[in-house]
Amino acid sequence: MSNPTTPREESLGSYEMLWDCPHCDTKKNLGVTHRHCPNCGAPQDASKRYFPSDADKVAVANHQFTGADRVCSSCGTAQSAKAKNCGKCGAPLDGMKAVPFVKEKEAPKAKGRPWGWYILAFVLLLSVAIWWRCIRKKSIELDVKGHRWATVIDIEEYREVGESKWKNEVPSGARAVSCSQKERSTRSVPDGETCKMVKRDKGDGTFEEVNQCTPKTRQEPVYDDYCDYRIDRWTKVDALKKEGTGTDVVWAEAPPAPTLTGPGARRAGERRATYTLDFSDGKKTRTCDVSEGTWRKYKDGQHVKAKARASSGELVCSSL
Ligand SMILES: [Zn+2]
Ligand SMILES: [Zn+2]
User: Fold this and answer.
1) Dihedrals φ, ψ of 129, to 5°?
2) Distance, CA 123 to ligand 2 centroid (Å)?
3) Which ligand is nearest to the CA of 37?
């Protein structure tokens, strides 16, 4: 939904970078004002600049940014981007590299407990427990004791029923339609911005504080008409059942197809059959509902090898 956008940026002001003199150890010299050490006169080492703490911040008023400083390749001193020649040794500065930019240090992330390991260990333990209780199997031997079957034919009647749908989905032929407002979906709406302040080294002894803001959204409900109505449908009203033992499956006699579709008309609906095998392991009877093919494959009295749950002894019907 929200595609990554470049954040809106807002300058909060420009400030001087700081540097410490490596010769006389004078600290917190200013990046623009002190191109040389105010104590001993040593030139500023541009690669040693750093961001000041909030208490040490010095604003630069009306500072015009002309580009990052360039390093003289002859004597190594940093020179303003405006300079054509090195102020110390006079070498031309055309094509010289800019000073390295200082990166703001990210706040160190709080080191939490290694929850990942606990969760992993827990999942592993749970998997072993599930395997032990529910998946682990053993072989058992059984005798087929008998075949059972059950058949069902649903009986449907064409009659009035109640339904509910969104207004645009209400079918034609609906009667007594009554609608009311209900939440159907949500949409994102703009909800201000999330901002974060970053310090950006300009490379000329100054840095800029920038507020980076990205738009935020929140979800808002969208309402629509939801309707109750009455309509004629084929509806299950009865079921014709038969059941028995052995392998001769019998179905009830279904009513003839109706000649006219109108209220009160009846027809045969879905037909379903259940095929059940009974086994004995010498002590108790075990039962499986299986496909017709599996059911017909076994003969009464046949000796069968199958799988059972190792923990409960329950017969695994899919192993037949
Ligand atoms: Zn110094
Ligand atoms: Zn130079």
Assistant:
1) -60, -45
2) 65
3) 1
CB neighbour list of residue 96: distance below 8 Å, 6 or more residues apart: 70, 71, 72, 73
Q: Which residues in 283-297 are b (16+ Cβ under 10 Å) and which e?
A: eeebebebeeeebee
Q: What is the distance in A from the centroid of ligand 2 to the CA of 135?
A: 79
**Half-sphere exposure in the Cβ direction for 265 (13 Å, CA):** 14
User: Would the pTM count as exceeding 0.70?
Assistant: no
Distance 315 CA to ligand 1 centre (A): 89
244 HSE (CA, 13 A, CB side): 8
- Maximum C-alpha span of the chain: 114
Scan for tokens 């496909």, then name that residue: 291
For β-strands 285-290 and 78-79, DSSP reports them as unpaired
Pairing of strands 137-166, 206-245: antiparallel
The residue-averaged pLDDT of 258-274 equals 90
- Reading the block at residue 251, the tokens are 């179905």
Reported as a single tens digit per residue, the pLDDT across 152-209 is: 999 999 999 999 999 999 999 999 999 999 999 999 999 999 999 999 999 999 999 9
Q: Where are the alpha helices (DSSP H) in the chain?
A: 115-130, 292-297
CB atoms inside a 10 Å sphere around CB 71:
21
Q: Is 31 exposed, middle or buried (0-12, 13-18, 19+ CB in 10 A)?
A: buried
For residue 40, which ligand has an atom nearest its CA? Answer: 1
Give the Cα separation of 237 and 266 in Å (integer).
Answer: 9
Query: Rounded to 5 degrees, what angle do the CA atoms 86, 92, 97 make?
Result: 80
Closest residue by Cα to residue 295 from 280, 277, 278, 308: 277
Ligand 2 centroid distance, CA of 121 (Å) = 63
Spell out the residues 6+ positions from residue 1 whose beta carbon is closer than 8 angstroms to its own. 188, 217
